[in-house]
Amino acid sequence: MSDYVTVARDGAIAVITLDNPPVNALSHHLREPLFKALEAARDDAAVEGIVIACAGRTFISGADITEFGTPKALASPSLPELCALLESLPKPAVAAIHGTALGGGLELALACHYRVADKGAKVGLPEVKLGLLPGAGGTVRLPRLVGPEKAVAMIVSGNPINASAALEAGVVDAIAAGDLTADAIAFAKARVADGGPHVPVRDRDDKIAPARADLSGFEAAVKEATRKTRGLEAPLACATAVRNAVTLPFDEALKKERELFIGLVNGVQSRAQRHLFFAEREAAKVPGVSKEVQPRAVKKVGVIGAGTMGGGIAMSFVNGGYPVTILEMSDEALDRGFATIDKNYGISVSRGSLSEEAKAERMGRFSRTTNYADLADCDLIIEAVFEEMGVKKEVFGRLDAIAKPGAILASNTSYLDVDEIAASTGRPQDVVGLHFFSPANVMRLLEIVRGDKTAPDVLLTALTVARKIGKVPVVVGVCHGFVGNRMLGARSAEGEDLLLEGASPEQIDKVFADFGWPMGPFAMGDLAGLDIGWRNRKSLGKTAAIGDALCEAGRFGQKTGKGFYLYEQGSRKPIPDPEVAKLIEEKARERGVNRRDISDDEITERTLYPMINEGARILEEKIAARPSDIDIVWTNGYGFPIGKGGPMFWADTEGLRKIVERLEYWHGKTGKDVFKPAALLKQMAEDGGSFSGRPAA
Ligand code: T1G
Fold this sequence. Notes:
The chain is α/β, with parallel strands linked by helices. The protein is 49% helix and 11% strand. The protein folds into four domains: 262 residues, Alpha-Beta Complex (2-enoyl-CoA Hydratase, Chain A, domain 1); 182 residues, NAD(P)-binding Rossmann-like Domain (Rossmann fold, 3-Layer(aba) Sandwich); 88 residues, N-(1-d-carboxylethyl)-l-norvaline Dehydrogenase, domain 2; 88 residues, Orthogonal Bundle (N-(1-d-carboxylethyl)-l-norvaline Dehydrogenase, domain 2). Helix 5 runs antiparallel to helix 10. The longest helix has 21 residues. The two termini are 44 Å apart. The mean pLDDT is 95. The chain binds (2S,3S)-3-hydroxy-2-methylbutanoyl-COA (T1G). The site of (2S,3S)-3-hydroxy-2-methylbutanoyl-COA has 26 residues, from strand 5, helix 3 and helix 12.
């Protein structure tokens, strides 16, 4: 056989074991020997049944995503050919699933006659998260096992289900009581003893027959599953393919699935989402931290501050399994903080995403104090106190006095200089920034701010803990606003002038919504509260004609029922307000600004292009290690549409030459620094380079 496939015999059962580290992806070098092993088992009269198992930590994790876009992806034997061979076998084939059977891995298992799972296994079809759909029969086989409604929900969400749910739904036939392979062999022997027939999934129609008679239930499931797919093609293609599985004969539906898959895999949205898949993993690899470095042990976490951020951060660590002590200055503040935490968990329970028992268990992981000394045994202490350097330094001074040697001291600052904070302690090597995004218990992004003196093992510990609590970590350098907020500043810089010169809040927000952002900057400002920016500007001695006027009038946004928009009682729907239009015109008149029609393209050039430019400056200053890190920050922390791959990936598709030309035009016209093209960006545009390393658009 080959290093990737070995075949053993247990009586009349051929046990085919795959071994393609790290996750048994169905690379071509695995597909070929597997195909040969299946043919040999088929033709060997002494073999009466087959088990397919995997070595290593998981069953097949899917097609080899690195092969997409190369001839290997479709090289024979393809995954569909493997599935067809499995389904044609005259003897029972059993998949032995441990770890995760995902994508093509589950599709191969669905082409087996039976599936036995380890109790800790998970199965799923996550292709939609790569801008794809299951392209090896998943959309036609899964509905035949679980019914079209459940199938379309699984395929459009892309989320895996655990072994017990898979057994209940009918995806797997049994859960191993002991050793998975032994149980799978015993299962195969029992099926051989039964004498069959071993009906392949393709021939089972009972679960889809009802929908064939009445599609209304299925269409309702489609409507629910595709509710939030804003501009993405893959979720809709997934639903179409499952509908075909119901309404068309198997082979016809399979053919159409392939056509839909080929259409998606060559499209920019899938390239963008595959880029993000690998970018997220790259971001967790920190240049300059050698393989020998080990993370410090973190068993107990302290959080200072029980406000919105502190409470959310504390929940994140508790959700990741850590015991957390929350410190506040008073019992009343602690009471308020824990009431909010309890309410947040209560919402999850009412939504059915958390059981009462789980809530009680998590609440039991918290402890509370008003005494710094109670944090002395914490391995990691993070502060989420008021965003003011003096306050931060006071907190770190106290931590320095009580924290045990080797404890990691972290700041949740959004903007401030972590080096300056570190310098206020005698242990700058133990200080790091952990910038969570609000709501901290929900948002996945975590900017890990590396100070000049932050020790490598502190950095590695932060990355390890971040992934344990389900965050997406990106290591960033020290500057005002790090990566995300610094680029947000560039994206927002022209907002007021665009309004004064003739655009309306609703026009600008529509340009953003059409681009795929969850909402535009002005609706977002109303949601977050305009007073936050107003306070920040005042602390920096800055002004904003319109934003300040709105706040001076008490128009803070949704929380006051008025901001850039009007909000009806209890509604979050932004309504354009003629009062705001009048205010803008008045401010323009005061400044002698002649208003004019402003095109949507101009809005893009004066908001998104400066953002790309700031990203290039961030790369020049090594505040971010790679362009794809910036893409991960923006798609996980600010709602940059994943179908566009993040700002730097999108800039490649927009064309760096075009971006530089337009930045130079606006720089010439306004003289504003935000338009002055970064040297790196100019150089890349001249050289025809690209941020994603692919040929320029
Ligand atoms: N192909 C290639 N490389 C992969 C891979 C894959 N499918 N999955 C993981 N890797 C790499 C990953 O880049 C990393 O590399 C290493 O393996 C460990 O991954 C036809 C078309 C399986 C749950 O979408 O969800 O099948 O950084 O850090 O946290 O219909 O990997 O070490 O160099 O994520 O333990 C569908 C994707 C493919 C599953 C394990 N399948 N993978 O998580 O390890 S499309 C997926 C995962 C498809 C068919 C369609 C996770 C994991 P490096 P990791 P992990």
